[in-house]
Amino acid sequence: MKKSIGEKLALLAKSQEKTQAEIADQIGMAPSQLNRFFKGNSEFNTQNLLAVLNILGIDLEEIISRKTRKFADIDEAKIENVYDCLNYMFKNIDELGQQTYLNQLAWATKATTKKSLPEKVQAIIEKETRLI
Q1: How confident is the model at residue 74, as a pLDDT?
Q2: Residue 11, C-beta contacts closer than 8 angstroms, at least 6 positions apart
Q3: What domains are there in the chain, each with its CATH number?
Q4: How far is Cα 116 from Cα 110, in angstroms, rounded to an integer?
Q5: pLDDT tens, position by position, 36-58
């Protein structure tokens, strides 16, 4: 089951050792309201969402700017071989797309070589695909 944005932010807050009470206090909200959002049981207005993102160190404006720059640089990308092409495509898909791509590539490699992936490769794939 896919986690809500609130549930993902709750995991991030926990990893940063920030309590819901601290976050709620910083944005001037009742802890119970923040708890409902973190559990995926309620929506947030944009102002509150941006405040929580800021507290957790996520700069939404920078993320959007970075994505915009990627699309603006399409014509300037130096793609000279198939590896450059794959690398370019991988960098220009979202996180879920990257995770899907890694899983499909791992499956295709196992299916065509009839071998298991090296442990280091498998560990990276598992690490990268466990977030969503």
Answers
A1: 56
A2: 3
A3: 5-58 (1.10.260.40), 93-129 (no CATH)
A4: 6
A5: 999 989 888 889 999 999 999 98
